[in-house]
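As a representative case, we now present a protein record of this kind.
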Amino acid sequence: MSSDRREQTRRVWLETLEKYKRDGDAAGSDDYWSPSLDCATRDEIIGIQNAKLAAVTPFLYENSDFYRRRFDRLGLAPTDIRNVDDLPKWPVVDKAEMMAEVEKTPPYGTYSTHDDELWAERGWMVFSSSGSTGVPRVFRYSQIDREYWAWANARAMHSHGIRPDDSVLICSGYGPHVFAWGVQFGLAKMGVPTIPGGGMTGEMRARIVDRFKPTVICGTTSYALHLGRVMEELGLNPAASSVKRMLVGGEPGTGIRNTRDRLQGLWDAEMVEFYGCTEASPHCGGYSCPASEAEDGTVTTHLMEDIQIWELVDAESKEIVDEGERGLTVCTCLNSESSPQLRFLVGDYTTYTTEKCACGRTHVRAVGSFSGRADDLINLRGNKMYPDQIEEAVRAVPGVGDEYEIVLTTNDNGLDIMTVRVEHADDVGDAVGSEVRSRCEVRVDVEVLAPGTLPKTEFKAKRVRDERTR
């Protein structure tokens, strides 16, 4: 690869990014961070996507060995993918392909456009996927990325209703995970004060809520439930606290109605969502708005289409599905110097609509938010289901505790069985089993434990324990 071509394509890409970054330093209105982008017409959105695609494909080809090899293997040139209509020419990139790349060229792989030279010049931070389904995908990001992250996250959190007179308690350990860091830098751009809650126990964070009166708490859905219960154990009432919003991310949230209702009832606060992934959407790709929850309880989540292209594909064929059909999320990231991934399979199930939202925003929305990541699929004797379906069932039974567990085992006859473990003061096994059966069409065993038996969730909930013999 010619160093001249590398630098030329990088310069063109960065110039293109800057051209379409509007209202970069402050909100453009009371309702929208960037009115001209948030409320752009469909033709304007597609025009921005096309301009960015035309600049990013040569940049990827010249600056990423992974992408260069893939283009060559597919018999494609960068000029073959210059607009959104060309995207189907490029098969989706999945996590397995990235993991294989890391194993071949550790520790970073070559799927990003960030090398040692850039790291020495303007490196910012390393982030990593959790590695729960294999080798972690590691990503280095530049100081330029930091600015684009903060801008995108500020747009999302402005839509949430967060303003400079708020204060935010961030309930995170600040590891190499993008969610908390992205929120932190976005809030700094907005001029919103934060209380970093890393390295604290639940009791310490509960005392902070009581003493320092933050108006927003930020963390996973599971942790927001846990923190509310800790407050109750201390004799504090989360519903009477200063908290008016719960900013959740990192695991399914608003799309699970019974969990959403439980959490909003516990805190008497609005639940808003922050959706993304480490690989292709390190900043906020999806976010709530003031009109996200309809009167019938259905929620929708906005996606920023001027900085990303969001598609849905069939789970088996990976072909694009029509609007209104359920599919797996695919993201092309067009807002990064270091990781502008092309058609990365994020892998969450949802349905899209391009109808204009009641809030005035025009970008595509995920109906029902996101749930059932393909990686989490449970196959029990040929019956396929997702943990969020079981969570919906568990939460439907009055009085069931916040913690639950799904245990998969193989009995002496070689038959795979599922046991759902819940907490309740009474024997509600039949009720829980009935709710699961109605949603998943499978019979399960239910183990009812005394309240307080299961371990409390401190970060991302790990609900499934698979102990089946293979």
Q: What stands out?
A: Residues 25 and 61 are 31 Å apart (CA to CA). DSSP finds 13 helices and 19 strands in the chain. The domain at 1-371 is CATH 3.40.50.12780 (Rossmann fold).
